């Protein structure tokens, strides 16, 4: 049985190929980083202020009855949450009813 001599350049090429495969494998396993600024707020992961801001499409700092209807489960609670009975929900009123 004869053994073959592998030259240094072949050894370095093989080592480089193995390292490259390891790097590709590591990149394939690592999840891509998530940029929270690019993610829309959701009911499951957003706080009251995030949901309020998203629902306040008129950007007037309060939620009208129509804007509140866009928040799942909030439309039915509007009259109860509108403590000052001004026909809109402030962030404070909205936050008090969040998750209830």
- SS summary, helix count: 5
Query: What is the rounded distance between the termini?
Result: 80 Å
CATH architecture identity of the domain at 41-96 = Orthogonal Bundle
Secondary-structure element series: HHHHH
The total count of strands amounts to 0
Give the low-confidence spans.
23-28, 34-41
User: Main sheet, how many strands, which sense, barrel?
Assistant: none
Per CATH, what is the topology of the domain at 41-96? Answer: Recoverin, domain 1
Overall pLDDT, averaged? 72
Instruction: Tell me the name of the CATH homologous superfamily of the domain at 41-96.
Output: EF-hand
Q: Provide the structure class.
A: mainly alpha
Fraction of helical residues: 40-55%
CATH C-level name of the domain at 41-96? Mainly Alpha
Strand share of the residues? Answer: under 5%
Shape annotation: globular
Measured on Cα atoms, how large is the radius of gyration?
29 Å
Key descriptive features of the protein:
5 helices; single chain; Recoverin, domain 1; 100 residues; globular; mainly alpha
């Amino acid at each position: 049985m004869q053994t073959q001599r592998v030259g240094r350049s072949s050894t370095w090429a093989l080592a480089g190929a193995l390292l490259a495969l390891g790097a590709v494998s590591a990149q394939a396993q690592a999840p891509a980083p998530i940029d929270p600024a690019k993610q829309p707020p959701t009911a499951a992961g957003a706080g009251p202020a995030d949901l309020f801001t998203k629902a306040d499409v008129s950007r007037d700092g309060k939620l009208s009855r129509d804007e509140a209807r866009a928040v799942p489960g909030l439309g039915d609670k509007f009259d109860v949450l509108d403590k000052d009975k001004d026909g809109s929900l402030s962030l404070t009123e909205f936050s008090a009813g969040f998750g209830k």
